[in-house]
Design brief:
Order of helices and strands: HHHEEEEEEHEEEEEEEEEEEEEEEEE
CATH topology of the largest domain: Immunoglobulin-like
Strand content: 35-45%
Number of domains: 4
CATH superfamily of the largest domain: Immunoglobulins
Largest sheet: 5 strands, antiparallel
Structural class: mainly beta
Distance between the termini: 119 Å
Number of strands: 23
Number of helices: 4
CATH class of the largest domain: Mainly Beta
């Protein structure tokens, strides 16, 4: 009997179905005896089985991600850069079913009673562009009028996440900072291959309202063949000078470099905006060896000025075009190029030194294709004090 007939039968008919079984008489002796109670039990079992339809399906519970626990913020130019780790599990301990979407909340602390308002939202599909592993970097870029209104005010940020259209997680703990005038971005950034390294050089920007940078951070972004980023920018070095040598660049790769100046203010670091970026395609290392036999000797000109005379062994490679001379005030930086044009002879006189100073010189061979060899081993020279100065 189909289930639907049992569900549609009236109570009297159900009772009659059971009564038929109970009215059966006992058969003659010697034959199998069928108890009316067996028929009664069978009828009740059929009734219960017919009525036992599956219940209404319950929708799966929507996941609530765990809250973010490591939100950090720092100022870069007229923007605030936020870093945090994406949650991987829900509050129930389950692995999240997909990449969560993110909402950034911002509050002006100096405005009593002001709520934390959403200022940025990133979908799970677009989040990969801002993510290295599970670490997310998102930048809150202020329009000029907004930055002027927020200057010298404290702003705090919170972040929350959600899976799909599910509920938001609890907000993270706040990360707060005071918005201040940033240092000016470095200028005139250049990048050139030198041996196995990429040598970067830049100059200080014109004075601004903020103090001059006390150090510089070098950022590098690896690029795909179409020029799009293969990963977010990474910090590859910090220096107090105006040059940096990237020795970890891989031949065949393409990179975009940018430099930021850094000042210390109110117990924290404030970065400038990025310098104008430069892109370098790292070709195979040049075949030219670094020059040998560099010698640096302080001398005086006919007018009595202190100068430094340099010489080194001449190369015999068929693709040798000339030489470049570099000077630094520390042995661990490449320094600045001193000659305007490629030197055709293995000699150079530096007429720009100052008395009583210490310098480090190195030389690179230049190929016909314009590529440089590795720098030679730096040579230290100390210039004598000026005439008449106390010894």
């Amino acid at each position: 009997m189909p289930n639907r007939s049992l569900h549609s039968r009236a109570p009297a008919e159900l009772y009659a179905a059971v009564s038929v079984a109970s009215s059966v008489s006992f058969p003659a002796r010697g034959r199998r005896v069928w108890s009316p109670f067996l028929f009664l039990a069978a009828g009740l079992a059929a009734l219960l089985a017919g009525c036992a339809t599956p219940g209404t399906p319950r929708p799966p519970e929507r996941q609530v991600p765990e809250p973010v626990t490591d939100l950090a913020a720092h100022q870069s130019g007229t923007s605030v850069v936020l870093h945090f780790t994406l949650p991987g599990r829900s509050t129930a301990g389950e692995q999240l079913s997909g990449p969560p979407r993110v909402e950034i909340l911002r509050r002006v602390e100096s405005a009593p009673g002001s709520p934390a308002r959403p200022v940025l939202a990133v979908s799970g599909a677009n989040l990969a562009r801002d993510t290295a592993g599970n670490t997310v970097t998102i930048t809150d870029v202020f329009a000029p009028a907004v930055f002027d209104a927020l200057e010298q005010k404290t702003v705090s940020y919170r972040v929350r996440t959600a899976v799909g259209s599910g509920p938001w997680s609890a907000p993270s703990k706040s990360a707060a900072l005071t918005v201040v005038p940033p240092p000016a971005a470095p200028e005139d950034l250049t990048a050139k291959r030198s041996g196995d390294a990429v040598v970067l050089r830049w100059s200080a920007a014109a004075p601004s309202r903020a103090p001059a940078p006390s150090s510089f951070i070098v950022y590098r972004t690896r690029l795909l063949t179409d020029g799009s980023p293969a990963a977010p920018p990474e910090v590859i070095g910090v220096t107090t000078g105006f040059s940096y040598q990237d020795g970890s660049a891989t031949a065949g790769d393409m990179y975009r470099y940018a430099v930021r100046g850094v000042i210390a203010m109110a117990g924290r670091s404030v970065e400038s905006a990025d310098s104008a970026p430069v892109v370098v395609h790292v070709s195979a290392p040049p075949s030219l060896p670094a020059p040998d036999g560099l010698v640096a000797i302080p001398v005086r000109s006919a007018q009595g000025h202190v100068e430094v005379e340099l010489s080194w062994e001449i190369g015999s490679e068929p693709n040798l075009a000339g030489y470049n001379v570099y000077r630094a005030e520390s042995p661990d930086v490449p320094g600045a190029r001193m000659n305007r044009r490629v030197l055709l002879a293995p000699a150079f006189r530096d007429t720009t030194v100052e008395p009583g100073r210490r310098y480090y010189y190195s030389v690179a061979a230049v190929g016909l294709d314009g590529g440089e060899s590795r720098l030679s081993v730096p040579v230290k020279v100390s210039t004598p004090p000026s005439a008449g100065s106390p010894r």
